[in-house]
Amino acid sequence: MDINKILVIGYTSDNLLSFLSFFRELKVEKTKNEDKIVQMLDMISSFKKNTHQINSCKIQKMYYLLLQDFDKESKEKKCYIANPDLLYVAEDWAQLDQNILFILVYENPIEILKQKIYSNDRLSMEDTLNYWFEYNIFLLDFYKRNKERCILVNYQEMDILSSYLIDKYNFDNVKICKKEKADTNLDERITSFLLEILLRDKYKKINSFYIKLEDYSLNYKSFEIIPCIQNSLEEKDIAELIYIIKTNINLKNKNQNLLDFIFLMQEDIEKLYEKNNNLKNTIKDKEKLAYFYMNYGTARQRIQKQLSYRLGQTLILNSKSILGVILMPIFLISTIFSYRQERKNYNNMVKIDPTKKLPLLEEYPDYKDAVKLRNHLSYKLGVVLLESSKKPLSMFLLPYRIIQIIYGFKK
């Protein structure tokens, strides 16, 4: 039976890169449209997450477009696509094309963890194992539904896969030498050994599922995860491991005092940092206040510039001499004229530049203190004068009201 179209799917530590050389030896080429297919796969995955926003017919059309290019190329030669995300569209492709062979690959979770450790991946060990577990459950479910068109194989047993493809699917009978596992150093063997113990004790679910995958795989063997690790550790290695553990315990005890000291230092640093932040915030507040006063002045100045306050001040200043009393009307008219001219200039300035408009008096930082000016004699006299000027008859009572306010203020 000849097969020209192959989809390789699996979650591995090297993202299925080993299949590049594997298929090259079997004279199977990667499809030239891989980039286009991967890009469209991303689009399909995105659409599937938002199925309420797109018609399923549109996704179906995208599948046909992908398969059309793949099918055209496969008529000339054997070709493959290797991508972990193919798992999420595999069911649809299996229904659309009966001539696709699915190679489903799983890898020992210990290898996945080692890759995460060596690459300083920030993903936690538990999250990594959970993703491995969920992905491979999906993978195994797909395999069970499509056994006649699938090969489930351990990623470490590529030589078995090559023999199977040659025998069953008439791939070119190229001699593929089984790759000997490189000698691992002591650190790597210890890492594998400790991860094995961790999986057996804490993550039994992961360990059991890996054995289940082995049960269904092309290369089933009745053993648990990395059975040879313990045997590969010789007595001298175990002695060295014990020495390392003892050394670490001693270092831990020696470092405890240092950690305590660092903790105390950290507390002091945090207190200093908090004080520094408070000081910075105080300076910022002062700067904001200075900027506000520089641009808009103070509420106290605003109240003192009001006509009522200025008229009252004119009354007080010019009532101290006979000449001042005689010329009082002239001084009052001059004050009113000056005030109106200032208001006219202000309104014209605001028309030209609206940013120059002064904020509401209540918005000033010193408003609460400045509002006390309204209890001053100058302000009260000015208010009485303005009220009386609006009613001509009230002008006859003005001297009486002024005397009354002065007498009440002195009390």
CATH topology name of the largest domain, in short, is Rossmann fold
Q: Which structural class best describes the helix and strand composition?
A: mainly alpha
Gyration radius, in Å: 44 Å
Indicate the CATH architecture of the largest domain. 3-Layer(aba) Sandwich
The strand line-up of the biggest sheet is: 2-3-1-4-5
What is the strand tally? Answer: 5
How far the N terminus sits from the C terminus, by CA atoms, comes to 118 Å
Topology:
Layout: E1 5-10, H1 18-25, E2 29-30, H2 34-49, H3 56-74, E3 79-82, H4 90-96, E4 100-106, H5 109-118, H6 125-145, E5 150-154, H7 158-169, H8 186-201, H9 204-216, H10 228-232, H11 235-296, H12 299-304, H13 307-318, H14 322-326, H15 328-352, H16 367-370, H17 377-389, H18 398-410
Parallel strand pairs: 1-3, 1-4, 2-3, 4-5
Description:
The chain has 411 residues and is mainly alpha-helical. It has two domains: 5-182, P-loop containing nucleotide triphosphate hydrolases (Rossmann fold); 297-410, no CATH class. Helices cover 65% and strands 6% of the residues. The chain contains 18 helices and five strands. It has helices at residues 18-25, 34-49, 56-74, 90-96, 109-118, 125-145, 158-169, 186-201, 204-216, 228-232, 235-296, 299-304, 307-318, 322-326, 328-352, 367-370, 377-389, 398-410, and strands at residues 5-10, 29-30, 79-82, 100-106, 150-154. It has a five-stranded parallel sheet, with helices on both faces. Helix 5 (109-118) packs antiparallel against helix 6, helix 13 runs antiparallel to helix 15 (328-352) and helix 13 crosses helix 17. It is elongated, with a radius of gyration of 44 Å. The model is unreliable at 220-233 (pLDDT under 50). This is Sugar transferase. Keywords: Coiled coil, Membrane, Transmembrane, Transmembrane helix. It comes from Campylobacter lari. Residues 262-289 form a coiled coil. The chain crosses the membrane at residues 321-339.
